[in-house]
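Entry 14: structure prediction run for SURF1-like protein. Input pasted below.
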Amino acid sequence: MTAAEPRRFRPSLWATLITVPAVLVMLGLGTWQMQRLEWKEDLVRRVEQRLHAAPIPLPTTIADPEALEFRPVTVAGRFLNDKEMLLVARPRQGQAGYELLTPLQRPAADGGGVVLVNRGFLPMDKRAPASRPESRVEGPVTVTGLVRLPQPAGWLQPGNRPGAESWMRLDPPAMAASAGLETVAPLAVEATPDPGRGNAPLNGIQPLVELPNNHRQYAFTWYSLAATLIVVYVLSQRRRTGPAS
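Run finished. Output tokens:
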């Protein structure tokens, strides 16, 4: 019976030159994801604090919009119903539809200017203003809602087409230009739902803040790939030392 030939770890130059940098990159990416995890957890805590804070008046001058994101605010003015816009919305309870954005003209005493107000969901059959006369609120109003900032378009998300009948995503500057508005705030206020109206059209927006936090899984994946590559490298570079005696 012939004994198994002994093997010794004798890595080739090319295998080492390929494996070592790859492992270092994977370890670096895993560490970067752990750092991102710490940042995201801190962000989630700050957002939760903002969401549950008492509403504040929307400042007249908005120098730092990000400082207001997800903050409950109040804003007073008059709706410019003739310049309302439709924003394509996610389906609600199986219904396709839109969110109604109505510009709110702030009084001169509050510095003037216009703020876009997201007033709630409209089913497809309520698209035409004539089908929802209750939406054309006249006179002074005070809106309480959540500040939302424009988000970059997703990889597969269609872009906005100024002049189209509806918008794909929030874009205050482009929307203002399309509607012929000046001095528009770089954000929108999502009106808070009124429990007394149930699921009625134009009953505000239920706060939905999505902050995906998959960094721990990503870090585990990168570290696992690095460990797997090390094992493959070691096993593949074991070579026979010669015939057994």
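Notes: Helices lie at 13-51, 172-179, 215-236. Will compare against the previous run tomorrow.
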